[in-house]
Amino acid sequence: MFGYDAPRIHAALNDLPPALLLASVLFDLLGAFLKRDSLKAAGFWTLVTGVLGTGGAIISGLLAEDATPHSAEAHAVMETHETLAFIVLSLFAVLAIWRLVRKGVWSEKEQPIALTAGVIGVALMTVTAMLGGKLVFEHGVGIPTTTLQAASLNRASGGHQEEGDERAAPSAMAHDSMPPAPAPAPSDSAKRP
Predict the structure, then answer these.
(1) DSSP state of 188
(2) For a designed S-S bond to 67, which of 6, 20, 32, 183 qualifies (C-beta 3.0 to 4.6 A apart)?
(3) What is the pLDDT of residue 20?
(4) Which domain holds residue 52?
(5) Nearest of 136, 147, 118 to residue 81 by alpha carbon
(6) How far does CA 113 lie from the centroid of its chain?
(7) Which of 7-16, 104-113, 117-126, 184-193 has the lowest mean pLDDT?
(8) Mean pLDDT of 130-138
């Protein structure tokens, strides 16, 4: 679709919802602390938009799971990532529905419960994102095998490395740990006076 495959669509759709849901919780916390209705309104709209975006990210993630080769170990991480994503969506969807029923405003008694649930949701969302990162950066999920092989060969040949980068390419580290080469034998012309 539009030159993108399922893992790329998921990568494109999964960044904005966490930002919106985090912003929603922050707006609500600030709105409660400063007693500003404008901040609470911003919290409401970012919550609704974040929930819709999270639904889209989950759908694209399910499509990416089926379209992406992965190991059994990566699959276990993927299942936890997926389960947490559904929990995050459910928690924030309940908050959004609750808020819609209340016409955008929680009562004084409801507000601490809702804010606590939002903070817990952000914590769960962070763990979910960390697992998604682990899938890509530790398991290479979503990266075609040919691309991984080309990158591995590039790194083995030295690749690009910033000056002072301690994470040297494997071949560069091997050269640094090798004993110095013996000095060349003097040539015959150097022996003559």
Answers:
(1) H
(2) 6
(3) 96
(4) 6-22+48-140
(5) 136
(6) 28
(7) 184-193
(8) 92
User: Is residue 147 in a domain?
Assistant: no
| 146 three-class SS | helix
Q: Which two tokens stand for residue 106?
A: 């929680």
Contacts 24+ apart (CB under 8 A), 77-80: 77/131, 77/134, 77/135, 77/139, 78/135, 78/141, 80/131
> Within a domain: residue 125?
yes
pTM of the complete model beyond 0.85 = no
| Total tally of structural domains belonging to the chain | 1
Mean pLDDT for the stretch of residues 34-54: 94
pLDDT at 160: 66
Over the range 20-45, which residues count as b (16 or more CB within 10 Å of their CB) and which as e? bbbbbbbbbeebbeeeeeebbebbbe
**Amino acid making up residue 133:** G
Please count the helices (runs of H) and the strands (runs of E) in the chain: 8, 0
